[in-house]
Amino acid sequence: MGYPRKLTRRFRAFDNFAISFTIINIISGIFSSFGFGMNAGGPPILIFGWIGVSVMVLFIGASMAEIASAYPTSGALYFSAGKLAKKHKGAWSWYTGWLNFVGQVGGTAATGFAAATFLQAFFAMQWHTYEVTIQKTVVITAVILLLQALANTYTVQLVALLNRISVWWLLIGMVVIVTALMVVPSDHQPASFVTHFVNNTGFESAIYGGMLGLLVTSWTFTGFDGSFHMSEETVQATVNAPRGIMRAIGYSAITGLILMLALVYSIRDYGAEAKADAPPVQILINSLGVGTAKFLLLIVIGAMLFCGLANMTSNTRQIFAFSRDGAMPGSRWWHSVSSRTRTPVKAVWLAAACSLVLVIPGWWSETAFTAIVSVNVVGLFLAYAVPIYLRLKLDDFEPGPWHLGRWGKPVGTVAVVWIVVSNVLFMLPHASPITPTNFNYAPIALAVVLVIATVWWFATARRRFQGPVSYGRPDEVAAMDLI
Description:
Layout: H1 13-24, H2 26-39, E1 40-41, H3 43-70, H4 76-84, H5 89-126, H6 134-154, H7 156-183, E2 198-199, H8 206-212, H9 215-220, H10 226-229, H11 237-264, H12 270-275, H13 279-288, H14 290-324, H15 331-334, H16 345-359, H17 368-392, H18 408-426, H19 442-464, H20 474-480
Antiparallel strand pairs: 1-2
């Protein structure tokens, strides 16, 4: 791909799959956003929305996997956008990289915020005098980000091991939670409960309220570009990276549907549980009792922490690659690699700091989590859409070993259309009446990043940034390898 090798290839096929599977993280995604779905559509959106959006995400993943096979680099989306564009390569690459950056930061922030929320729920169950506040959530999130940054800095081998463990944590944890919800309660909701539509968003339009509920599944299925970003650290990346993407999405779709069904049919007091601070926790308490609920909550919190750690690792690789081509302020800092760990340590701390900045509005905002999630979903999926769209415009695309053949363009077309439609929806208000405390600030956060990127582009970057940099011919690059 034109770069000297600085990162060690320590990821095998399972490791590559593990990072995307961990970032998607069905337990973290479903538990953290289930309450929003209960109020925005209810059971039919939670269940059928999961199935429908999962299929759409498979289209997106297949198109991305085909591109990952052709361009297996840490730059991933922005690198492939620069290579696939017929003209204005630098601009396409520039904006894709910045969208990917803000989406990755949103994912790291949202996962940390969710873990902090559920930790507070556990504290409140364990110590009845503990008072849950949104300010404490922000502080706990900051601590989580700090610990994850330290892990990515000093215990790289442990991080790789934790990514492997996380797969089994998720699968075994899902089985334990689902089994408990199926066996312990004396009764469950009837099959017809799947038609119980609920719209507590404040908007009169039931269709709009229900469409907002699709954010639950869309938020869960973010971050599978992690396999793409880890390409330079993956053995036989032209095959293992695309397979990692597809396996992560496919396995998550199936296991996630099982978990979703178990939670939905274990609902007892819909109104009270939907209004609870952490609705799925209240469902566990009502169905299983406080003792069992606390045990299962530890599984959920563990899954969220695993997810956040993997998110930060992927986030760091994107920053490293983008900076390697001089596309970020202080690029020479962020693409430097530690001589001890062979990882971009300074990029780790930039990822943590930017995530914290995105979390800070949560000190005042009641809807901070859904706004951060929207930043994550919109930023990432727009970044996914750009290289797929550019690939559709090419008649001479040269695929890698893993490809879709004649189905490449039809699959890519569906993927791009879905991304555009869903992202417009998630930039709109999530609650009515709109107030300063429930305002969806995702469009503002995204606009700030795009304005900065645009001003910088026209001021200086367009004259010096022409897209991914080539360091020379393959033989010349090989001679530069530090490993």
